From TrEMBL:
InterPro entries: DEAD/DEAH_box_helicase_dom, Helicase_ATP-bd, Helicase_C-like, NA-bd_OB-fold, P-loop_NTPase, RecG/Mfd, RecG_dom3_C, RecG_wedge. This is Probable DNA 3'-5' helicase RecG. Gene3D superfamilies: Nucleic acid-binding proteins (2.40.50.140), P-loop containing nucleotide triphosphate hydrolases (3.40.50.300). It comes from the Bacteria. GO terms for molecular function: DNA helicase activity; hydrolase activity. Keywords: ATP-binding, DNA damage, DNA repair, DNA-binding, Helicase, Hydrolase, Nucleotide-binding. PROSITE patterns: HELICASE_ATP_BIND_1 (PS51192), HELICASE_CTER (PS51194). It comes from Actinoplanes subglobosus. Residues 480-651 form the Helicase C-terminal domain. Residues 284-457 form the Helicase ATP-binding domain. The lineage of its organism: Bacteria, Bacillati, Actinomycetota, Actinomycetes, Micromonosporales.
Length: 724
């Protein structure tokens, strides 16, 4: 019998097993049995050739309708053109060069699977030299029976494949495997299977590959989705329970202290959301267990103010707080902004400082030796109650006297190890607050950040101005781009400032075209655009560049000049995406906006309209109307609701990336579960996981379930989930 641990060499032979290993990273019977079909075809159904897109890699089920052999014009030899159709009235041409012998097997009326890249020639869509598998009468008796069973009216699995291992080869391997496969012990507790009407694991694994009917396929998918959702939720509930029980240091709010003075000195009222979230965080900090909280907030909702109040509560309780930012620009911006907010409270020991206050220190990689020594001394002896820094905070030699709170800004910019390294600098596990201005759909928050308490800031502070966004279709309406440059000049003339954002820094960057973008020009770059603006489009304005390759002191000088109003226009990359706060900036033109993601565009436009004047964001593109890229930009222009946009963004990404597959470099283990479409199922799995862990925290009564969770959510991914 074959089990999930059996090497594929013992099931399929060395040659086939090596092909699966080399091209699809499948090593064991378990790897192959969990390599699920990505769709199912049925002869004459579900394979509408009219829906195929040029440059798309496809596998189609179709029938040979005719053929012709023509001499080639440019070189010697013949070209065989085979016309195939799927019964919908649409046809596709398969082209073979100097392979006239294929006439013998590609006979009219024969059905088969054809795989290749869709191209277009003289208005006709075609596949050049496609791989194919025919339902052939010439096959051996056993093979013919298997093919007939596979094709004759049944649902045909189409697998994620490689050029060297097409889908029908995978299907044949799965057939061979299923002949001897012994399903594992069902890890799902029987009471949950009965309550949720879930089929057994053996039935699910067979039906997902060889469905006997549509209802059977639905039941198989439903069960396997449950396995995925349940494994992730069990992991998160376990980790939340452990975190709640871990010993920490309570940092209760003081009746009188820095926080009370700070609040009294605020020139504006907190929003209702800021007050409510502040109370949640204050209560967490007062408990003798580490806080693990995610703070979501729209761009400009006041997350930094909420974090400053939390840091002051910790300082009042005798501890230190560290704010970790992803870039020097953002760290410096935070340092200046918090210094301005604290005023005398952040300058204890200085002539104009409050003697009962604290000190604020900045730690970045570009500090000179003397400044670094001074900063680290303040961190080590506790003089600096609030420490703002970049990755430099993580280095050896940065020692805290009593680290009580870690605030991570734009948490998605940091790797697991980096966040963990900062937490390890505390004698006892510190409280952790992670912040993001990238709105997260509810199911993603539940699935990725499920071990964190979540707070949401949805209100904008009073006085913040609306942002209007417009698409600038450069190819269809070139006058719109001319008008965009005029609009920037008008804003500058009115005393405001502008951003021009580019996808690249300069020509020396390697930006190979994507497979689906063979003919697109390279994205516009800062170094290319800057001279054009100075000499032509924005001539006479004060313009400077800002990007990640500039020396830190030069970046800082440019940002200071822009913030002081000494520059009119900043030509930048996404280095300004988060945290840059210049209230006088009112207009942003994003060049080649279709090269950015939805959430990135939403973040970028949050840099304008931060003062009393309205903001304008112009989305330049050469994407044609009706294309996916253009629809994405139209969606961004249509709403400033970040949560709506986050769902659009999620729809357009591989959902597995959300679970850290791209960070860990491993496969995603969300093969079937959709974080958008399966919200109800995820909530149900969360509820069952909470009940089960409440009764049996270590799953000691369910060893098969514990092993299944470990296989689906390995330790690296569990660590990723834990740290958010």
């Amino acid at each position: 019998m074959t089990t999930t641990d059996t090497p594929l060499t013992k099931v399929l032979g060395a040659k086939t097993a090596k092909a699966l290993e080399d091209h699809l990273d499948l090593h064991t019977a378990g790897d192959l049995i969990y390599h699920f079909p990505r769709r199912y075809d049925q002869r004459g159904e579900h394979t509408d050739l009219r829906s195929l897109q040029v440059d798309e890699q496809v596998t189609v089920l179709a029938q040979v309708q005719g053929m012709s052999v023509k001499p080639m014009r440019q070189r010697r030899g013949n070209m065989l053109e085979v016309t195939i159709g799927d019964g919908s009235g649409a046809t596709l041409t398969c082209t073979f060069f100097n392979q006239a012998w294929r006439e013998r097997e590609l006979r009219k009326g024969v059905w088969g699977l054809f795989a290749g890249k869709v191209t277009e020639f003289r208005g006709k869509r075609q596949l050049n030299g496609p791989a194919y598998q025919l339902l052939s009468a010439d096959a051996s008796k056993d093979d013919a029976a298997a093919e007939i069973e596979e094709f004759a009216g049944a649902l045909i699995p189409v697998y994620p494949a490689a050029q060297a291992v097409p889908t029908w080869v995978i299907a044949k391997c799965v057939r061979t495997l299923l002949d001897t496969f012994e399903p594992p012990e069902d890890p799902m507790p029987a009471e949950i299977r009965a309550k949720r009407n879930l089929v057994g694991i053996g039935t699910a694994l067979r039906e997902i590959h060889r469905p006997s009917s549509d209802p059977s396929l639905y039941s198989a998918k439903h069960r396997l989705k449950w396995d995925e959702a349940f494994a992730v939720q069990l992991t998160l509930v376990q980790r939340r329970a452990k975190a709640a029980a871990a010993p920490g240091t309570a940092r209760p709010r003081a009746d009188a202290g820095l926080l009370v003075k700070f609040d009294a000195g605020l020139p504006y009222e907190l929003t209702e959301g800021q007050r409510d979230v502040g109370e949640e965080i204050a209560a967490d900090l007062a408990r003798p267990h580490p806080m693990h909280r995610l703070l979501q907030g729209e761009v400009g909702s006041g997350k930094t103010l909420v974090s400053v109040r939390a840091m002051l509560q910790v300082v009042d309780a005798g501890g230190q707080a560290a704010l970790l930012a992803p870039t020097e620009v953002l760290a410096t911006q935070h340092f200046r902004g918090i210094s301005a907010q604290l005023g005398a409270l952040g300058r204890a020991g200085e002539l104009d400082g409050d003697p009962e206050g604290t000190q604020l220190t900045l730690v970045t990689g570009s500090l000179g030796a003397a400044a670094r020594r001074a900063a680290l001394a303040k961190v080590a002896d506790g003089t600096a109650g609030i420490v703002v820094g970049t990755h430099a905070l993580l280095y050896e030699g940065v020692d805290f006297k009593d680290l009580g709170l870690v605030v991570v800004d734009e948490q998605h910019r940091f790797g697991v190890e980096q966040r963990d390294a900062l937490r390890a600098k505390a004698a006892r596990p510190p409280h952790v607050l992670v912040m993001t201005a990238t709105p997260i759909p509810r199911t993603v928050a539940m699935t990725v950040y499920g071990d964190l308490e979540t707070s949401v800031l949805s209100q904008l502070p009073r006085g913040r101005s609306p942002i209007a966004s417009h698409v600038v279709p450069a190819l269809e309406k070139p006058a719109y781009l001319d008008r965009a440059w005029v609009r920037i000049k008008e804003e500058v003339k009115a005393g405001h400032q502008a951003y021009v954002v580019c996808p690249r820094i300069g020509e020396d960057e390697e930006t190979p075209p994507k497979d689906d973008e063979p003919s697109r020009r390279p994205p516009l770059a800062v170094t290319e655009v800057l001279p054009l603006l100075r000499d032509e489009y924005l001539k006479g304005l004060r313009i400077a560049a800002l990007h990640g390759r500039m020396p830190p002191e030069e970046k800082d000088a440019v940002m200071r000049s822009f913030a002081a109003g000494d520059l009119d226009v900043l030509v930048a990359t996404t280095v300004i995406e988060v945290g840059v706060d210049v209230p006088n900036s009112t207009v942003m033109l994003i060049l080649d906006a279709d090269r950015f993601g939805v959430s990135q565009l939403h973040q970028l436009r949050g840099r304008v309209g931060r003062g009393s004047a309205p903001g304008i964001c112009l989305l330049h593109t050469e994407a044609v109307e009706g294309s996916a890229a253009r629809e994405r930009l139209d969606a961004v222009a249509s709403t400033t609701d970040g949560f709506k946009l986050s769902e659009i963004d999620l729809e357009q990404r591989r959902e597995g990336d959300v679970l850290g597959a791209s960070q860990s470099g491993k496969h995603s283990h969300l093969r079937l579960l959709s974080l958008l479409r399966d919200e109800k199922l995820i909530k149900e799995a969360r509820a069952e996981a909470s009940d089960l862990i409440g009764d049996d925290p270590d799953l000691t009564r369910y060893p098969a379930l514990a092993a299944s969770v470990a296989a689906l959510v390995d330790e690296d991914r569990a660590e990723y989930l834990e740290k958010g």
